[in-house]
Specification:
- The structure holds 2 protein chains of 2 kinds.
- Chain A is flat, with a radius of gyration of 18 Å.
- The two termini of chain A are 33 Å apart.
- Chain A folds into 2 domains: 35 residues; 38 residues, no CATH class.
- By secondary structure, chain A is mainly α.
- In chain A, 43% of the residues lie in helices and 0% in strands.
- Chain B is of the alpha/beta class.
- Chain B has one domain: Metal-dependent hydrolases (TIM Barrel, Alpha-Beta Barrel), CATH 3.20.20.
- Helix content of chain B is 42%, strand content 15%.
- An 8-stranded parallel β-sheet of chain B has the order 1-2-3-4-5-6-7-8.
- In chain B, helix 6 links the parallel strand 5 and strand 6.
- The longest helix of chain B has 20 residues.
- The radius of gyration of chain B is 18 Å and the shape is globular.
- The two termini of chain B are 34 Å apart.
- The chains are: A mainly alpha, B alpha/beta.
- Chains A and B meet through helix 3 of A and helix 5, helix 6, helix 7 and helix 8 of B.
- Bound molecules: zinc ion.
- The site of zinc ion has 7 residues of chain B, from loops.
- Zinc ion (ZN) binds next to loops of chain B.
Chain lengths: 104, 284
């Protein structure tokens, strides 16, 4: 494991000064995304979409204690299986694990 | 600050991009063979592509005083086509001796399929046969973690493969440890929207040190930023990192990795390459 205790050269108040506004905006963007899903013209249930469910589950990590929240979230959004896919289902990844290492 | 762009698909970019890179301090770049955004129809198309990477593109770069190096392969997005892979692999060796070739890449996996694995193995065998270095593309998003594991396992199944001669690219927070713990070199790709950002790349370097890591834009025909490295330099300065640390990541580490190939020679300048496109091709 790498040295996860290595610090950012900035003191806390400077990190907040530098990154608060953009982080605040990213959080509001995420809220807007969830609101947009609720306003979908077909009124479909957002929780019927595996990517949305995965994102909501990963979002809980935000409020957990550190370290390595990004790593934990990325792993939650990853295919946890070990064996190669037997066939090519599509060229591009989905962004979240569909629950089937053999593809959707 | 001078920098080296270790991963850029310049055939997709304009002269304006070369100019911006030169103006922001880019002195050399390396261009891995990549997917065209659609599947090629014949091995002849790849041969033309390899000529573009070894003849035309170095000339274009030289106009801006940028050294152009390259890596050859059939990329993972087309790796599923085993027949095409065999035909393309047979045509690679004659290009390997060309003066700007660094090795085989970017090979790896896309959706982690069995056929992609076979094509990856064939490329690694070719690299070992020709004592070439390797540049690895790791898959994206949910496929990255599993794909990086499969790639490392596959690389390690070859005896006599020196991990210091293999760069595993597009690393993220959840894959960097397995890459470095197994002795491989590690690339972080800076994306404008959907993957590792400038800030996260700086975070990763703070948490894992700058040893054996380089950053790149992987700019191509998609949303990407050819001057992502100078933007990264600004991000590191914003955090008060030393110029020495920044220089290590954007200049010294790529030089240390590339210098394992005799073809890489930063001192050579671009004199061996015609600076005028018209010496090589007809341009209106
Ligand atoms: Zn690439």
């Amino acid at each position: 494991m790498g040295n996860i205790d290595s610090c950012c050269p900035l003191p806390l108040h400077r990190i907040v000064d530098e990154y608060f506004a953009e982080s605040r905006n990213k959080l509001l963007e995420l809220a807007a995304f969830f609101d947009r899903l609720d306003r979908a013209c077909d009124a479909a249930d957002p929780d019927g979409e595996f990517r949305v469910v995965a994102l909501k589950r990963a979002a809980r990590v935000l409020l957990e204690p550190g370290p390595q929240r990004v790593k934990r979230m990325a792993l939650m959004l990853s295919d946890p299986t070990e064996e190669p896919r037997g066939y090519l289902d599509r060229k591009a990844a989905w962004g979240a694990y569909s629950g089937n290492g053999e593809g959707v | 600050m001078d920098y080296i762009e270790p991963h850029a698909h310049m055939i997709s970019r304009t002269m304006d991009d070369y100019q911006q890179m030169a103006l922001t301090g880019c002195v050399a770049l390396s261009e891995p063979a990549f997917w065209a955004g659609w599947d090629r129809q014949s091995a002849d198309s790849f041969e033309d592509y390899f000529r573009q990477l070894t003849e035309f593109e170095p000339t274009r770069a030289a106009q801006f005083g940028i050294q152009h190096y390259t890596w050859l392969c059939l990329n993972p997005k087309e790796g599923e086509n085993r027949d095409m892979a065999r035909q393309v692999l047979a045509r690679i060796p004659k290009f390997l001796e060309r003066p700007n070739v660094l090795g085989i890449g970017e090979i790896g996996l896309n959706r982690n399929t069995l056929r992609e694995m076979e094509t990856l193995r064939d490329h690694i065998a070719l690299a070992i046969e020709h004592r070439s270095m390797i540049l690895i593309h790791t898959p994206h998003l949910e496929d990255k973690y599993k794909g990086t594991k499969l790639i490392i396992r596959t690389l390690q199944s070859f005896q006599n493969l020196d991990p210091k001669r293999v760069m595993i690219d597009h690393a993220e927070e959840h894959t960097i440890e397995m890459i470095r713990d197994n002795g491989f070199r590690c690339g972080l790709t800076l994306y404008p929207n959907t993957k590792v950002s400038l800030a996260r790349a700086a975070d990763i370097i703070e948490m894992h040190s700058a040893e054996g890591i380089y950053v790149n834009s992987a700019c191509d025909w998609g949303f990407s930023v050819p001057v992502a490295i100078p933007q990264f330099i600004m991000e590191m300065r914003r955090r008060k990192h030393s110029e020495a640390t920044i220089r290590k990541v954007v200049y010294e580490n790529p030089i240390a990795f590339f210098s394992q190939v005799p073809n890489f020679n930063l001192a050579r300048a671009s004199e061996s390459v015609p600076r005028n496109l018209k010496e090589l091709v007809y341009v209106d």
